[in-house]
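User: Can you predict the 3D structure for this chain?
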Amino acid sequence: MSGGLSKARLARLHDIMAGHVEHGLAPGLATLVARGDEVHVDVIGKKSTDSADAMRRDTIFRITSMTKPITAVAAMILVEECKLRLDEPVDRFLPELADRRVLKRLDGPLDDTVPAQRPISLRDLLTFRSGYGAVWGAPDKFPILKAIADLGIVGFGPPNPAMPHDPDEWLKRLGTLPLIHQPGERWLYGAGAYILGALIARASGKSFGDFLHQRIFEPLGMKDTAFFVPPHKLDRFATSYFVDKSGALTRYDGVADSRWARPPAFEDGGAGLVSTIDDYLAFARMLHNRGKHGKEQILSRVSVGLMTTDQLTAAQKAASPFGDGWDNRGWGFGVGIVTGRDGLAASPGAYGWDGGYGTAWQNDPAEDTIVILMSQRAQFPILSPVYLDFWTGAYQALED
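Assistant: Here is the predicted structure, written as structure tokens:
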């Protein structure tokens, strides 16, 4: 039986977060710590640096990579309906990705390839072992990066809702690229979730956005989660900022002129969604309740268990770059997994993911806890004091 939440320590968390806002590390933010039936939400600051509009509990944020767990749930819904199978090649719905070639070496020319040893499977996409993914480096060093840039496709870097290509054109262009490594060989971040969105659309016979709305957002009451913000909701949309080399906030994406202010040609399953803190709580609580929402079973408990179990072998981790290492981390289906305690936050078995534009979420079954951060400060999480101090403060607020 878990304890509750400490009011004194929640007050301390508020003071720490308010201090970050006061010192200009973020214009505003919203935090949530839930334990059992107790939910504490704190809203601080403003929606932008040049406006007096206060941050609100229903403020809409770009959740970027927190889209990935939602996409994984959508894929597993189709697996449960036998419209997709975990270890079946995706070629049946995505012929553009059949008969893959694989680069002999990462920095080699695009025509220096070998045949793929096997097709890409749905499991490969869910675990980011498809052979496609982000490569960190300069285009003059890696020809594959120059080719990606020339094709103008998303999936290998920051999201871009303004990309003009629809899913069919995106897949056609992606299919001209060789794989970066053999399917199943190693974990490589990102692109698998983008491909999943296109796969889900074809397997379901609906647009990806319509499938998410009908099967996840509407049943869970996630009324503000979508691939764009309609005009009548723009007054609740927060401005987005990057941190420049001096540490100052630089405006990245506004409101009326936002790239998220109109429907995208490509509904991005990797990083395209916007949401609110309460909408994401509904999604997180469904997973925490092993797929149930009230009397409705969105996903089976077996599927949730599979999603939230580390799927990577030791050999795959050894071959794959991951932040500060895999010692206490793993990867499930669209979510990161905590496999060992290495700090003040997160118990083994906890799972969740971050959004690179300043958001974060984690379910911790051992602590009966859901923790969510929504901010406008885009920075690599482990470099952000807002992010780091939030996790420390949130976990200290849990009473024994």
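The chain has eleven helices and 16 strands. The longest strand covers residues 28-35.
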